[in-house]
Design brief:
19% strand, two-stranded antiparallel ribbon, alpha/beta, 218 residues
Length: 218
């Protein structure tokens, strides 16, 4: 099985780093497929478990609630499970740790030099997808930087979720070049960290549709 088996008729979209009720409502209304909530305290978009419960209570059926964690205590993650549909691991979590919560999950990989994506996709075979993000030493994600998309092989055995420096200005080009299963954006739809902008969310989704309608480059 190759990544070709995961080519959707449209690219799925995750808006990440939600911190406000009005942004959750606007993201749902705009048509986002998934909403991400950051539980790692080192992020400028971090929220507590109680806040997670408040925000996810506003999310209707068929919109996926995703919790982002970075090498955190299992007890904390278990406290969040009732409010989440999908776990996103952004640290050095081993495959058995990711699998241990009995919840669907994805694994984020930062695209440092020499990364063997095929080997890692095989190692994290239990993941529902592999999220590819830009690499900056000491920063587990959310850098707002993009990486060279040509480094993504076309034969990965997991659906690719493309992240890192995406915005309305480049996401259509990314979709045409990579044909990912999904795209993940945070800073590209914000006016400041954790504060989303309705017009930027709508423009991003419009650009995604434009990319879907453009013939693939590979």
């Amino acid at each position: 099985m190759s990544v070709a088996d995961f080519k959707p008729t449209r690219t799925r979209v995750k808006f990440c780093g939600l911190t406000r009720e009005q942004d959750v409502d606007a993201a749902v209304a705009a048509g986002a497929d998934a909403l991400g909530f950051v539980l790692w305290p080192g992020s400028r978009r971090a929220i507590e478990v109680a806040r997670l419960a408040e925000l996810t209570a506003r999310v209707p059926a068929f919109v996926t609630r995703v919790g982002l964690f970075v090498d955190q205590e299992p007890a904390l993650i278990r406290r969040c499970l009732a409010h989440l549909d999908l776990l996103q691991f952004h640290g050095d979590e081993a495959p058995d740790v990711c699998q241990s919560f009995g919840h669907p999950w994805i694994k984020a990989l930062r695209m440092r030099e020499g990364l063997d994506l095929h080997a890692l996709a095989a190692a994290y075979s239990g993941a529902s997808g592999i999220l590819l993000d830009a690499y900056r030493p000491g920063v587990p994600g959310g850098t707002g930087e993009r990486f060279d998309w040509s480094r993504i092989p076309a034969s990965l055995t997991k659906p690719v979720i493309l992240a890192g420096g995406l915005s309305q200005a480049n996401v259509a080009r990314a979709i045409v070049g990579v044909r990912p299963f999904a795209v993940d954006v945070s800073g590209g739809i914000e006016t400041s960290p954790g504060v989303k902008d309705d017009s930027l969310m709508s423009a991003f989704l419009q650009a995604v549709r434009q990319g879907d309608e453009t013939p693939a480059m590979r």
